[in-house]
Design a protein that fits this description.
It is a single chain. By secondary structure, this protein is an alpha/beta fold. The protein has two domains: about 55 residues, Arc Repressor Mutant, subunit A, CATH 1.10.10; about 160 residues, 3-Layer(aba) Sandwich (Rossmann fold). Helix content is about 35%, strand content about 25%. The protein is built from nine helices and 14 strands. A hairpin with a 3-residue loop joins strand 10 and strand 11. Helix 5 packs across helix 6. The N and C termini lie far apart (about 45 Å). Keywords: DNA-binding, Transcription, Transcription regulation. GO terms for molecular function: DNA binding; DNA-binding transcription factor activity. It holds the Pfam family DeoRC. This is Transcriptional regulator, DeoR family.
Length: about 230
């Protein structure tokens, strides 16, 4: 098996499991100890993984999956979260919906009438149009990987709004903070939370204790909605 294929298989396993043993990888790749060590060294040098005793873990601070990869994962959990989130939306509300695959699911469950949606998520457009929802798209710099607009233009446009509710996504959270992988997206999320009467973070339990350097807000500044909340 060529090295590129082995590296892809290792990363796929880590994206699923977060941590894998050397024995598991040897069985998966059908390779020797020395070859596995070289493969893991390559991935660690590239900042993709961290070596730990007996195996490897995903370096989550270096990893950010695209929207199109994320929308295929944990779909059941995201639908549960989306349904719970949509139940908070009342008629005639001004609602912010953040870019992201989990926030996208709540759109399907919106039943409130005469609401207006503001979003920086270009992936939401088709769903919002199909439901006939009054929608404002924030301008700004497009981040192709997450299909989100960010930057100074988006920040300035947000100053025109005072939201009843905001629903934002996160890459990780712990007892103290909610986190994301990109400081520019973190700034948008933080500003939205400041401008909202009530803010929710939508995140399934796999995001728990995932640390990233970009803080969104303190854990007491927004309400977590997970599949078990």
């Amino acid at each position: 098996m060529i090295v590129e294929k082995r590296l892809d298989l290792i990363m796929d396993a880590l994206l699923r499991e977060k941590k894998v043993s050397n024995k598991y990888l040897k069985d998966l790749l059908k390779t020797s100890d020395s070859t596995l060590r070289r493969d893991l060294d390559l991935l660690e040098d590239a900042g993709k993984i961290k070596r730990v005793h007996g195996g490897a873990i995903l370096d989550i601070r270096a990893d950010e999956r695209s929207f199109y990869d994320n929308e295929k994962t944990k779909l059941r959990e995201k639908k549960l979260i989306g349904k719970k989130a949509a139940s908070f939306i009342k008629d005639k509300s001004l609602v912010y919906i953040d870019a992201g695959s989990t926030t996208s699911e709540l759109i399907d469950f919106i039943e409130a009438r005469q609401i207006r949606i503001v979003t920086n998520g270009l992936m939401h457009i088709n769903k919002l149009v199909a439901k006939g929802l009054d929608t404002i798209i924030l301008g700004g710099k497009l981040k192709a990987k997450t299909m989100a607009t960010t930057g100074l233009v988006a920040m300035n446009e947000l100053e025109n709004f005072s939201f009843d509710l905001a629903f934002v996504g996160a890459n990780g959270y712990d007892d103290d903070y909610f986190y994301t992988a990109d400081i520019n997206e973190a700034l948008i999320k933080r500003k939205v939370i400041e401008l909202s009467d009530k803010a929710f973070v939508l995140a399934d339990r796999s995001k728990a204790h995932n640390f990233y350097h970009a803080k969104i807000c303190r854990s007491d500044e927004a309400i977590l909605i997970g599949e078990d909340e």
